[in-house]
Amino acid sequence: MGHHMISSSASRRVLRGGWVLGVLFVGGCEKFPWSLSGAAHHEETKTSALTTAQSAVTPERPAVLPNDVLATVNKVPISKADLELSIQEFKAAVESSGQAWKPLAADKVQKVMDDLVNTELMSQDAVSRGLTRSLGVQQRWEHLRRGFFAQEWYRAAQQRLEVNPADIAQYYGQNKEGFREREQVKLRQLTVNSEEQAKQALAQLYGGTVTFDALAQQVSVGPTAGQGGLLPRSVMRAADKAIAMYMKPDLDVIVLDPVLEKAAFAIDRINGLSPYVKGPDSRFHIFQLVERQEERPLPLAEVSDQIKRGLLIQKLQGAVDELKGKAVIESHADRLEGISQ
Description:
Layout: H1 8-12, H2 19-22, H3 39-54, E1 69-73, E2 76-79, H4 80-96, H5 106-128, H6 135-160, H7 165-174, E3 180-181, E4 184-192, H8 195-207, H9 212-219, E5 235-236, H10 238-247, H11 258-265, E6 277-278, E7 284-293, E8 296-297, H12 300-326
Antiparallel strand pairs: 1-2, 3-8, 4-5, 4-7, 6-7
Helix pairs in contact: 4-5, 7-12
């Protein structure tokens, strides 16, 4: 599709998988129980869930206004809504691949339309050939049907389950210690093969006869020697990173071996040096502190969106748990052996 390197047929698959339910099981936060309100609503939800589960429910084909018909295939209309949904799915696929979305040119929109026509033709022919009577087709349709309705449940639940500013503020107030930006440092590292070389390097550095970056380029056997020993990313304590990842899953920092970490974070001033320490690679390492970002509390404004998402996930999980509590579920774990993979 021109400047977007994902086909429209591939894009339709984005919303067909079971990824939606995966978000319900993200851990790390205390659950907040949620329950449906009203006995009538309770009975309505229970009945509709059973009906959906026990039948091959297929929504009615939507009525299409004459002015919204873009094409017909054996009198079956393809509407503006069909085209817009295809483009939205295509856009989601493009953005999920890390590319920037650009509105489609007229010829690309026409190609999406052509794909819709072809899809309808193939669908009609599949039915006419009796493919719906195939056990394999029925099994795949049931799998898709289940996932589709679960996705629509998730979409509707997000709209009805509200997380208000008071909830966010309360959670922040109760968990302030968890909302802190952890200490990070930028380091230069000099690595040599023997303790004698490490002693000589430290003597030169303390004697002021050579700078750390120059000496690293001369004698270091580490991978950053060519950059004067400068590590490519900030360094964070392993324990701090484990906590910080809850707030920033894509956090890109370096974690050192515990022995090296202790030496590096003990440096108390900019341009200060660590003693030499023997690493797990049996080599000797010296660090220089280039920059320190002190630990700081994160204000509510910076973490409000993350808290809101976390509380919403808790409410969604609570809704799933409530459904489980009302349902009759029988499991046969002994039959899991031998499942094809």
